[in-house]
Amino acid sequence: MSVPSDFVSLGALHRELEELFLLHQEALMGMDLPVARERLSRYRKELTRHLEAEEALLLPELPRAGRIRGAAPELFTGEHQRMLELLAKCQDAVDALEPSAPDYRRAVLRVFDMESTFKHLEHHHSLREETYLFPALDSVLDATERQVLLAAFLARTEPPSR
Length: 162
Ligand SMILES: [Fe+2]
Ligand SMILES: [Fe+2]
What we know:
Layout: H1 11-29, H2 33-58, H3 73-95, H4 104-140, H5 143-157
Helix pairs in contact: 1-2, 1-4, 2-3, 2-5, 3-4
Domain Hemerythrin-like: 74-138
Organism: Corallococcus terminator
Pfam families: Hemerythrin
């Protein structure tokens, strides 16, 4: 992603991450475990990097916008923690899948159920950021501050190999 001029544009990064998760689910649906596992662990790494960059760079600027109902910094960090915990459980469940097990298909369905809960949490959280956090940052930071912070944020979220 080239450096945008406003924070609201960062919503595109959420869509990219969601796409990566869907690719993992497509592989799982096709019972291609090696690919499903590889895509899930890539997603987890990229999501973790995204959340860490938000906590290190974006959330510290949020208090400048004053208290916003539904957008306290600890609300975002609490959701980050819950997302990472649930994602770790999803990954454990995917790692534990055993194609020769008699209940293999049921076990895959259970993974989809768990991942559905994760997706709801992730969607809700991303929406909260797109509704409150990003517009708040756009309103309190001047053009130069936005440019510097957005560049730093993208540099930190970009995968090392890209
Ligand atoms: Fe976040
Ligand atoms: Fe985010």
